[in-house]
Amino acid sequence: MDNIPFFAEHGQLSFRWIHFIAGVLWIGVLYFFNWINGAFAATMDAETKKKVVPELMPRALYWFRWGAAWTWITGVVLMFLLYYMHTGNFFAPGTEYSGVRPTAAQWGIPFAILITGFIVYDQIFKNLPHTAGVLLWGGIAVGFAALMHHQLDMSGRAVYIHVAAMFGTAMAGNVWMRIWPAQQRIITAIKDGQGPDAADPAVAGQRSKHNTYMSFSLLLFMVGTGQTALSGANPVIWVPVSLGISWVGCFLCYKKVPSVKGF
Hints:
- The chain is mostly helical.
- It has one domain (4-259).
- It is built from nine helices and no strands.
- Helix 2 packs antiparallel against helix 6.
- The longest helix is centred in the first third of the chain and has 39 residues, at 46-84.
- It is elongated, with a radius of gyration of 20 Å.
């Protein structure tokens, strides 16, 4: 029994380590696709694409999709270890349940919302104009933060992590259910010397771009919760503020892409 805290602590450390490595791999390849490979691919003629794409993209997409999978899986494990099975992290200090481990009924609400986030996100961008979809998805993130902060008495740290997890779930769903299937068809078409169906590059490109924009806020919420500048601030204010700053930062990165040239 004396070894249980030891194994719990080191098990948590192990999952954090895997989560971090997988996340760096996933997001790193995501940025490569959006800011490097896209501009490079535009310079290739059809014959060059036929040689390069079937060799490059399956390799890159392997690390991309499995990085996403392991980031998400270890993230869910850490959610349970740090918030749902832990005493003190879930509820805000000074509230009725402060210092208490949440029950399944209490943590089930935010967990169900973040897990179903991809379904909601996917339907939004299938059925609404793009700008309206972006605004609605951002509004859902802010509304989710308000629900957790005001109605469920969750700590600032828990609120930010759950918003990040909702984004991460939507991003992982994009990778496996939208980007990867479309890229498989694109690669096959190029290998066969044919033009891909126009819908596939459009969907893969849009969802990859969405993931890039969401990643900026996700990374802030994941790494910044240990600092009181974020965890001690009102998340209902700082979630939309960070979304706005993240959007500008990511937009500027995209604007920089065309000016970065090869030799």
